[in-house]
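Researcher: I'm preparing a figure for a lab meeting and need a structural model of a single chain. I don't have an experimental structure, so a prediction will have to do for now. The sequence is pasted below. Please return the structure as tokens so I can convert it later.
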Amino acid sequence: MAVKCKIKKDDRVEVTTGRNRGKIGKVKKVVADRNRVRVIVEGVNIVIRHTKAGTPGAPSGKIEKEAPLAISNVALLCPKCSETTRVGHAFVPVVGSEKLRKVRVCKKCKEHIDDK
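Model: Understood. Here is the structure written out token by token.
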């Protein structure tokens, strides 16, 4: 299921609250479940999961993995100005067509975040 939010997979974000405050990472996955949106960020919010090997060859013991964070606890890092920013939207014309395309825009430097 596609999730409509202002932070997408492969965006660089900074954690704004909690024990991982100030850490920067890349969004691995955006998860929507039960009226909330959460993100999994590389190298942030590491938890230890104690597991027992269910099948031969499966890992057992203490396994470290990233746990989801609430999307409100992260802020997007603008690829142009490298600052945390809010996200706006703008409509730009599609090359060779009369149609308009919606793109994300940095509220601080007014540059397009989506360059495709």
